[in-house]
Design the sequence.
């Protein structure tokens, strides 16, 4: 089966590309290489030295005997070309990673806010329109985020997309129904994922598209079995304040003796998943599509829940690092509780999760130490501030 991986050059997209190719799928990468361009814009680079997309593809094809094909295309603007690729290669599945993925970058300034909205919503809608127009009926697997639910302490276990509700009709009678869990985005990036969810709902209902939306937790780790086969296949490792995910960021800070920077109290609780499980979940989702006419399948793609301070204390204990509390640039609750259902992957699809442990943390730390000379300390702290209120608080703290 042919598979399109949109954004297949990125942090999650590249290891997924290799994993699906290893499983025997004929993989096509569709990417405009925007993530590399953003590195240039920000003046920062991956902690790991990543090869060009052409070198990556050539290396994998040599090692595996596969034939990954790369198409450089801007999916937000080149609709007719996207449609042509669909009609030519007739993919049975489309994996959608082609969105600007960093909340801090999406909140940096008006230009990054507008870019995130323009790119993310246009890519998603172009893909949906092309699926309808092509009449090919591929299964769309989209990488969403747990952030669509928001991070308030409701005391509820977050469902997998749909919330059971009892509603009173005009006659005073109670009706049972399921509704999409009310969204509560915490950034422009998260808002685009909420918009995606509404577009998926419409196109599944109106055009009977088969869609799976994966609400993923924060990814930690950087290596999978496939990317470790050759230096040219190595995955990117973001450590900076815009793109670095929290555990990876802490471990790179520890590698250069920089204090572990915890925003606010560190009481922000989040869901997490290892990159190895990300690629496995994508493969499982592809193998278990919804039937035509069914509502969107929504899975919570996460395996563990931790607070930021719990992670910082774990890294500090293993590496001897100090913890430094700094003003939180984000506009969010100081602390929150979080519990989420993830039965679809763990129990129904039999995912064997990769859990946080000393051995894997040490693996990431050793990678950070190996490439520590590539770390630029001036990019460690988050430079994006959510709103004027947070800006004033941070500036006051600096003056004092």
Sequence:
């Amino acid at each position: 089966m042919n598979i399109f991986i949109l954004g297949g050059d990125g942090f999650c997209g590249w290891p997924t590309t290799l994993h699906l190719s290893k499983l025997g799928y004929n993989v096509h990468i569709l990417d405009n290489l925007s993530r590399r361009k953003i590195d240039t814009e920000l003046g920062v680079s991956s902690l790991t030295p990543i090869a060009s997309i052409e070198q990556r593809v050539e290396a994998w094809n040599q090692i595996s005997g596969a034939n990954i094909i790369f198409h450089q295309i801007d999916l937000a603007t080149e609709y007719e070309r996207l449609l042509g690729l669909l009609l030519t290669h007739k993919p049975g599945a489309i994996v959608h990673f082609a969105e600007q993925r960093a909340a801090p970058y999406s909140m940096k300034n008006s230009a990054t806010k507008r870019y995130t909205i323009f790119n993310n919503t246009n890519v998603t809608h172009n893909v949906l329109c092309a699926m309808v127009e092509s009449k090919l009926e591929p299964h769309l697997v989209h990488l969403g985020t747990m952030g669509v639910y928001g991070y308030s302490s409701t005391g509820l276990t977050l469902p997998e997309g749909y919330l059971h509700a009892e509603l009173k009709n005009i006659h005073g009678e109670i009706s049972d129904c399921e509704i999409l869990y009310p969204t509560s985005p915490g950034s422009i990036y998260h808002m685009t994922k909420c918009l995606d969810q509404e577009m998926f709902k419409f196109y599944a209902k109106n055009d009977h598209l088969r869609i799976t939306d994966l609400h993923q937790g924060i990814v930690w780790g950087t290596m999978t079995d496939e990317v470790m086969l050759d230096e040219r296949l190595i995955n990117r490792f973001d450590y900076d304040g815009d793109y670095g995910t929290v555990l990876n960021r802490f471990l790179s800070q520890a590698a250069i003796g920089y204090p572990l920077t915890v925003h606010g109290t560190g009481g922000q609780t989040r869901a997490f998943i290892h990159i190895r499980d990300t690629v496995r979940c994508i493969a499982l989702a592809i193998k278990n599509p919804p039937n035509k006419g069914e509502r969107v399948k929504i899975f919570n793609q996460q395996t563990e829940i931790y607070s930021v301070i719990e992670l910082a204390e774990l890294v500090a204990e293993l590496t001897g690092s100090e913890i430094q509390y700094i003003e939180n640039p984000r506009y969010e609750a100081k602390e929150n509780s979080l519990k989420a259902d993830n039965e679809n992957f763990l129990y129904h699809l039999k995912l064997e999760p990769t859990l946080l442990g000393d051995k894997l943390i040490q693996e990431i730390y050793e990678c950070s130490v190996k490439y520590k000379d590539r770390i630029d300390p001036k990019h460690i702290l988050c430079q994006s501030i959510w709103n004027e209120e947070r800006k004033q608080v941070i500036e006051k703290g600096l003056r004092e």
Remarks:
- The longest strand covers residues 139-145.
- Residues 253 and 260 are 6 Å apart (CA to CA).
- The chain has one domain: 2-399.
- The chain has 13 helices and 14 strands.
